Amino acid sequence: MAYPRQREKGSSRDYVYRSTKEQIMIGEIAPGMKLSEKEIADKLEVSRTPVREAFLQLNQEGLLEILPQIGTIVAKIDLNSVEEGRFVRENIEKAIVAEAARNMGEEALLQVETNLTLQEFSLEKGSFQRLFELDDEFHRLLYKGCGKLRTWDMVKRMNIQFDRLRLLRLAVNHDWKIVVSQHRRIFEAISNKDVDLAEETTIEHLRLVDVEKGALKEANPDFFA
């Protein structure tokens, strides 16, 4: 189980929370795995209190199960929650890209284009961990450019299980060329103020993982509830 070597500013609880959540989301800590407060406290060089607090927060987000007499287990991926999250995100993000195509300013477009340039560079270098981060930031910038960051925060909270499935797919397939090319098409549609194409490409993009979820479950049956 790998953890970041460098600690960012913030409380010990936040540090444990961010580190553990990242490891769960990218699959370094697999669904169904039992976690030890003591082991994580030792690895992150913190006391057990912030670990316990972080575990409670992750439990509230549906990433950990705290079971009496058993311990703390990484929650398995719930496909019903995946579908509900995808439904919410698809419908909201379709509206976001439509608004972006109509109204997004030059500075916001430049930020998105800079993100895309970094994606393409990371793809060329095979930096998949960096691509995970840039993928999320690309979508956040679309919401930000429309003045809808609180909407993004709400969507992200509802999309934890959907994001886990997306990241599992990318960890297995490393099929980033399709993802990055779809991002580029979304950006170009927005830049050209083509609302219909922006919506169409966004739907195609967010449904990519839906096509493969059966195969992912078959290949990793222990990861799913």
List key phrases describing it.
three-stranded antiparallel beta sheet, globular, mainly alpha
Question: What does this protein structure show overall?
Answer:
The chain is mainly alpha-helical and about 220 residues long. It has helices at about 10-25, 35-45, 50-60, 80-105, 105-125, 130-145, 150-160, 160-175, 175-190, 195-205, 210-220; strands at about 35, 65, 70-75. A three-stranded antiparallel sheet has the order 1-3-2. Strand 2 and strand 3 (about 70-75) form a beta hairpin. Helix 1 crosses helix 3 (about 50-60) and helix 5 packs antiparallel against helix 6.
Q: Which term fits the overall shape?
A: globular
Computed Rg: 18 Å
> Treating each run of at least 4 consecutive H or I residues as one helix, how many helices?
11
Helix share bin = over 70%
Low-confidence stretches: none
Query: Averaging pLDDT over every residue, what do you get?
Result: 91
H/E element string? Answer: HEHHEEHHHHHHHH
- Tell me the β content: under 5%
Major sheet characteristics: 3 strands, antiparallel
Distance between the termini: 22 Å
β-strand number: 3
